[in-house]
Amino acid sequence: MIELRHLTYFRTVAETLHFGRAAELLHISQPPLTRQIAALEKELGAQLFDRSKRAIQLTAAGKYFYRDTTEIFKALERAKRNVSSSSTGKSGALKVGFMMSTAYNILPSVTRHYSAAYPEVDMRLTEYVPNLLATDIEDEKIDVGIMYRPEDCRRLDSHTIYAEPLLAVLPRDHRLAGRQSISAAELAEDAFISIPRMIAPVVYDLIQQHCQLHGFRPRIVLETNLQQTIVNLVGEGLGVALVPTSMQAMHLDTTVFKPLIGAPMVEVAVIWNKDNTNPCIRTFAETAVEVWGRMQPGNQ
């Protein structure tokens, strides 16, 4: 009968491709490890390692088995986290991913309020670019994220926290810097700095559609992964950009932010994997929505 220790032995050998090093990592001697792997291969009826060469290699069957055991260990880790969390989500562990722009508005408040309300939850936060955050939420490397809604939500669930308009960020000496608001059409001849589509498809497409609605396709001369970098580069006079309103909090002396007439709105949501049953997700999502409501004028 295959036991969890057999899978641990197999995965350690597969990752080191060396029985001696694997035995050291497992704190056992090499002969018992070799026998356990042989017994596992007999139980499975397939050879997992090719030992015919100087360095061992995974066979085709071994590669498939390694991939499938990855899912087993992922499920085990999820089970361990969920056991440590109560059914109400008041204790346990929660891995939170966030995109950088939320650090300028909602993230600090949510973090403070959630930590105060649920001190027994071990919350770990990691900054991401949106597309990688969505991928890691799907793979359950991250429990929950605060981010733009991904294009493909088939495996994800979400709760919208807020929607914010895009606005124009211009160099301080730009010809439109003195205006109260501007139309995107007035930027048709300007060079644009943009986030790549592969990093944040929702925002990229929103900008493209808004510009095309005003009769032009933006001439993108520079792409960078972070909104903060975009604003800094605008301040250096390398172009103009359309960014979420939250980026105004940067307060750079080299840039000005101008409301866009008929500005498109970008939604920011709490996102999680539908199959992730960590109860802390619910309490975190509820806290995010509640905190945003308190942050609005008149609700202090």
TrEMBL record:
Which UniProt key words apply to this protein?
DNA-binding, Transcription, Transcription regulation
Keyword match Transcription: yes
User: Is Transcription found in the keyword set?
Assistant: yes
Which Gene Ontology terms of cellular component type are present?
Answer: protein-DNA complex
User: Which interval of the chain is the signal sequence?
Assistant: none
Cite the Pfam families for this sequence.
Answer: HTH_1, LysR_substrate
What's a single GO MF annotation on this record?
DNA-binding transcription factor activity
**HTH lysR-type domain sequence ranges:** 2-59
PANTHER family to which the protein is assigned, alphabetical: HCA OPERON TRANSCRIPTIONAL ACTIVATOR HCAR, TRANSCRIPTIONAL DUAL REGULATOR HCAR-RELATED
Give the family from UniProt: Belongs to the LysR transcriptional regulatory family.
Q: What is this protein called?
A: LysR family transcription regulator protein
* Organism annotation: Herbaspirillum seropedicae (strain SmR1)
